[in-house]
């Protein structure tokens, strides 16, 4: 995706996401594959979003969150990936015109992301924390809460 080729990336992420949700990959295998499952769904949604296919972007994020239900507890070292997915779902809702719903989804994910950021690797922290906090700022702006947007922008600056 960073190479600017979402049309080429989309079918690959779609295949990976589907493969990781197969029944044989549940249970004991989940532990080894959970990060792959979460990331593949987030990247699929991101590629669809960049292609302007907002309606389609929501489904992989919902599938990701359903797959992770009860399997990524608070404090898990990969909790940040689920928070990234939640904020991405909020972003989709924002683009569909639901500013209040987007803010309600993104704000808790952003607040928790700030809490778990110290546990993240430095590369992941630098790459993903600002993305989630920027989403929170844009959602707050769209919802008409300039004060909250300013708070999120200030928090974003700490991670750049």
Give a description of the structure.
The chain has 160 residues and is mainly α. Helix content is 75%, strand content 0%. The chain has 7 helices and no strands. Helix 2 (30-50) packs antiparallel against helix 3 (54-68) and helix 6 packs antiparallel against helix 7 (146-158). The protein is globular.
Structure described in brief:
The chain contains seven helices and no strands. It is mostly helical.
Write down the overall geometry. globular
User: Number of DSSP helices?
Assistant: 7
Order of helices and strands: HHHHHHH
Low-confidence regions: 28-32
Percent in strands: under 5%
Rg on CA atoms, Å = 15 Å
Number-wise, the strands total 0
Give the terminus-to-terminus CA distance. Answer: 20 Å
Major sheet: none
Helical coverage, percent range: over 70%
Mean pLDDT: 83
- The computed structural class is mainly alpha
Layout: helices, strands, pairs:
Layout: H1 6-20, H2 30-50, H3 54-68, H4 79-95, H5 99-116, H6 122-142, H7 146-158
Helix pairs in contact: 1-2, 2-3, 2-4, 3-4, 4-5, 4-6, 5-6, 6-7
Key descriptive features of the protein:
single chain, about 160 residues, mainly alpha, globular
